[in-house]
Amino acid sequence: MNSSLILRTGTRALVPVFLLVAILVLLRGHNEPGGGFIGGLLAAICVALYEKAFGVDEARRWLRLPPMTIAGIGLAAALLGGLWGVVEHGMFLTGVWPLYEYGPDGWTGWPVGSVLLFDTGVFLVVVGVVAAILFALEEAGIPEDRPEDGEEHS
Amino acid sequence: MTDPTSYKAGLWRFVPATVQAILFGFFCTYLAPVSGGQIFDYVYPWVPALGIEAAFRVDALSLLFALLITGIGAICFLYAASYFEADRRLKRLLTLMSLFAAAMLGLVLADDAITLFVAWEMTTLTSFLLVGFDHQKERARYSAQQALLITGIGGLALMAGLILMGEAAGTYRISEMGDLTNAPMYLVILLFIFIGAFTKSAQFPFHFWLPGAMAAPTPVSAYLHSATMVKAGVYLIARLSPQLGGTDIWIWTLTLVGAATMVVASFWALRQTDLKLMLAWTTLMGLGALMMGLGGGSYYAVGGALTFIVVHAFYKAALFLTVGLLDKGAGTREADQLSGLRRAMPRAFIIAMLAGASMAGLPPFVGFIGKELIYEGALQSPVQGIFAATASLIASALMIAAAGMVAIGPFFGEQKSPKEAPKDPSPLMWVGPGLLAVGGLLLGLFPQGLDALITQMTQTVRGEYGAPEVKLWHGVNTALFLSLLTFALGALFYRYLRAIQGSLIIEERRVPDSDRVYDILLNAMKNTAAWTARTVQDGRMMSYLRVTFITLGLMVWAAIFAGEGQVATLELDIPLFHWVIVAITAACTITILFTGSRLIAIAALGGVGAAIAVIFVLYSAIDVAMTQLLVEILIVAFVAIAFIKLPRAGTGALRIGDAIVASVLGLGVTFGMLAVQGADIALDVTEFFEQASYPEAAGRNVVNVILVDFRALDTLGEVAVVVIAGIAALAALRAGKRIKE
């Protein structure tokens, strides 16, 4: 591990906050700026920061699940969110809000349902794929027969 | 299970043959009504939006083919079940043959052009798998590939032809297309349909794949490459005659191609020593005769051709299976090593004699009727009569010699065979060919049963009334004299068979070998493909980016010039703060261009992104700004990691070519944005989203509601693409790692 002490300490302090914000952004996304994609990017930046501070192996352990598995779970969650609409309304990806009702006072109750499941899926896909590519990039070697990239002069 | 010699297939091996026999019985129930002129249509919707239906039609033409496919199918399946009794691959063989039979039935029964095409391709594919059945043998693989390529090209042409026909006629129902000979694309249609039919039915110059296809097991050759599949091209020509036939180019093309195939093939048949190969070449001769007859167009020519389809299917399948009997019972198919087997293999001998007599066209076999009708048809042709008659005469005489090779050669003279004690194989194997051989005789003696069906078929093909009478004795006429002349010539050819073979072997070296030409063409294609790939795919990121950017730039500029809207003028009266952002963006961009350090370039690139994010904020697109900023952060991180691994830094020198590309694209995007600003944008959708977002989708952030609700399907697709891109990136990066290790 050759990163600076400041980066490591800072990362320890910042990552939990970042993750909290990422989840907040995901949850509030339906009414305020945010959503699964942006939240996912924030969480991915967390992963990148952690990886830069502690190295790939430590970051993999920290994530517990392999990154592409996380992405796979996300894709499955998004699909499930869509299929929920099929069960409830007979139409793929139609929003289902079991605890949320529209009345004269606007929407009341708990805003959870298929749409949130779908957005969580997007979140997980973004985190998973970014982490996977990042780790692979860090671990990748330099191919020996690498073609010379754009060094000619015209 | 471990000892391959002890394998014996269970009773299941008779199931496919039984299925075919039941289907045969089913189609027989149509015989009476169809002979009476009735037609049965079965239509099911398939792709209604494109006007494609699964439409099937049972008329005389399709019924006859259906009967041949199922009837000869039952016999060949039964034969295969015994032929491969001790072979573990029997299951695969029977499955493939059953698939083929289903496809072939679909082909002849289809009334929808697309249905026909799909079935046509299915037969090509199953044929490929069956020719390559002995896939351990290089020769089998080569032949299978050749058959696939030749008939596959024909399939593509056929598809183009059928679609053009459908568009010209306004319907894909073949029976409703009407006369298309005056369609503006008639010649193109004809060309495509001919290529399809000629490749499938192995007409000159596409004939060479068929002898190669004899690498398939004998029951397959008898079924696919003699009785059914190779007749698909003939069927197609017959089926489309009402739509496309009767023109001069139709008549002459079919006559010339058919005659060339017929004569060339019958000569080369005599050259062969392998009896199966010899039969393959005579099959080519038969196919040529069929094409010529259908081209003739008179009712004798067409009726003769249609009768000959039946004749040929009977005797040729029987002979193929007989050669299989010889192979099994006596140990070889080489004509030189077989003789005098008439006592040792009496059943094979009788079958070969009966079928061979029909092939030679001797009365009272059905082959005689077929040949008489072909002569009659050739003589009645208005223009090409003498030509067609001469070609038929030569080919028929050579056929007699070929019939002698398979029916007389192996059975007379001194007994000789590689196997010590040659004998007939089990009854399950000879009963099928026996039925076919006896059927050929019975049909010749009682042709009345065939007559009604042939009459209906001739009408279907020619689209008007009038058909030849199918009967044994047509009286003393020119055709009869031609028949007598044929017998004399044929006997002469057989007498001097050795001499003819000898000279053909010498000739063989002088004529260009079709296989060689095919190889040269194939290699040329492979080399061109390799050259293109090398040239286009040089593996350098810079080249790919250049091509991408140039294309994008051209598209943007084309859109700008093609557009009719007003290009907005630049708004220069903006707050000072906005100018600052523009200045930062410009400064960062210039830094990227001229810095010698990659790290500085990356950081500057991040600066450009951040400045643009601020612009988004200024126009209150908070979501876009957040995304932009976060993506920018990740890009900097990623590019930094990637660039650190690249050994050389950029020089910072100006590269004029790249500068031009960048300017073209950059200016294009700028003008493109201005053009969009100047155009009227319909706001209906925007208004709908704004109004419906809260009451219907429970969200006030319209951007997010669009992403996860209104257009969630798009998002789902994008998310899937992200995962796929991730997998691809992982694969590419890991490949790089392996090279290092």
From TrEMBL, chain A:
<feature type="transmembrane region" description="Helical">
    <location>
        <begin position="35"/>
        <end position="53"/>
    </location>
</feature>
<feature type="transmembrane region" description="Helical">
    <location>
        <begin position="65"/>
        <end position="87"/>
    </location>
</feature>
<keyword id="KW-0472">Membrane</keyword>
<comment type="similarity">
    <text>Belongs to the CPA3 antiporters (TC 2.A.63) subunit B family.</text>
</comment>
<feature type="transmembrane region" description="Helical">
    <location>
        <begin position="12"/>
        <end position="29"/>
    </location>
</feature>
<protein>
    <submittedName>
        <fullName>Na(+)/H(+) antiporter subunit B</fullName>
    </submittedName>
</protein>
<dbReference type="InterPro" id="IPR007182">
    <property type="entry name" value="MnhB"/>
</dbReference>
<dbReference type="GO" id="GO:0005886">
    <property type="term" value="C:plasma membrane"/>
</dbReference>
<keyword id="KW-0812">Transmembrane</keyword>
<dbReference type="InterPro" id="IPR050622">
    <property type="entry name" value="CPA3_antiporter_subunitB"/>
</dbReference>
<dbReference type="Pfam" id="PF04039">
    <property type="entry name" value="MnhB"/>
</dbReference>
<keyword id="KW-1133">Transmembrane helix</keyword>
<feature type="transmembrane region" description="Helical">
    <location>
        <begin position="107"/>
        <end position="137"/>
    </location>
</feature>
<feature type="domain" description="Na+/H+ antiporter MnhB subunit-related protein">
    <location>
        <begin position="6"/>
        <end position="131"/>
    </location>
</feature>
<keyword id="KW-1003">Cell membrane</keyword>
From TrEMBL, chain B:
<feature type="transmembrane region" description="Helical">
    <location>
        <begin position="250"/>
        <end position="270"/>
    </location>
</feature>
<feature type="transmembrane region" description="Helical">
    <location>
        <begin position="599"/>
        <end position="619"/>
    </location>
</feature>
<dbReference type="InterPro" id="IPR046806">
    <property type="entry name" value="MrpA_C/MbhE"/>
</dbReference>
<dbReference type="Pfam" id="PF13244">
    <property type="entry name" value="MbhD"/>
</dbReference>
<feature type="transmembrane region" description="Helical">
    <location>
        <begin position="306"/>
        <end position="326"/>
    </location>
</feature>
<keyword id="KW-0472">Membrane</keyword>
<feature type="domain" description="MrpA C-terminal/MbhE">
    <location>
        <begin position="655"/>
        <end position="734"/>
    </location>
</feature>
<keyword id="KW-0050">Antiport</keyword>
<feature type="transmembrane region" description="Helical">
    <location>
        <begin position="574"/>
        <end position="594"/>
    </location>
</feature>
<dbReference type="GO" id="GO:0005886">
    <property type="term" value="C:plasma membrane"/>
</dbReference>
<protein>
    <submittedName>
        <fullName>Na(+)/H(+) antiporter subunit A</fullName>
    </submittedName>
</protein>
<dbReference type="InterPro" id="IPR001516">
    <property type="entry name" value="Proton_antipo_N"/>
</dbReference>
<feature type="transmembrane region" description="Helical">
    <location>
        <begin position="544"/>
        <end position="562"/>
    </location>
</feature>
<dbReference type="GO" id="GO:0015297">
    <property type="term" value="F:antiporter activity"/>
</dbReference>
<feature type="domain" description="NADH-Ubiquinone oxidoreductase (complex I) chain 5 N-terminal">
    <location>
        <begin position="49"/>
        <end position="92"/>
    </location>
</feature>
<feature type="transmembrane region" description="Helical">
    <location>
        <begin position="147"/>
        <end position="165"/>
    </location>
</feature>
<dbReference type="InterPro" id="IPR025383">
    <property type="entry name" value="MrpA_C/MbhD"/>
</dbReference>
<dbReference type="InterPro" id="IPR050616">
    <property type="entry name" value="CPA3_Na-H_Antiporter_A"/>
</dbReference>
<feature type="transmembrane region" description="Helical">
    <location>
        <begin position="93"/>
        <end position="110"/>
    </location>
</feature>
<feature type="transmembrane region" description="Helical">
    <location>
        <begin position="347"/>
        <end position="366"/>
    </location>
</feature>
<dbReference type="InterPro" id="IPR001750">
    <property type="entry name" value="ND/Mrp_TM"/>
</dbReference>
<feature type="transmembrane region" description="Helical">
    <location>
        <begin position="386"/>
        <end position="408"/>
    </location>
</feature>
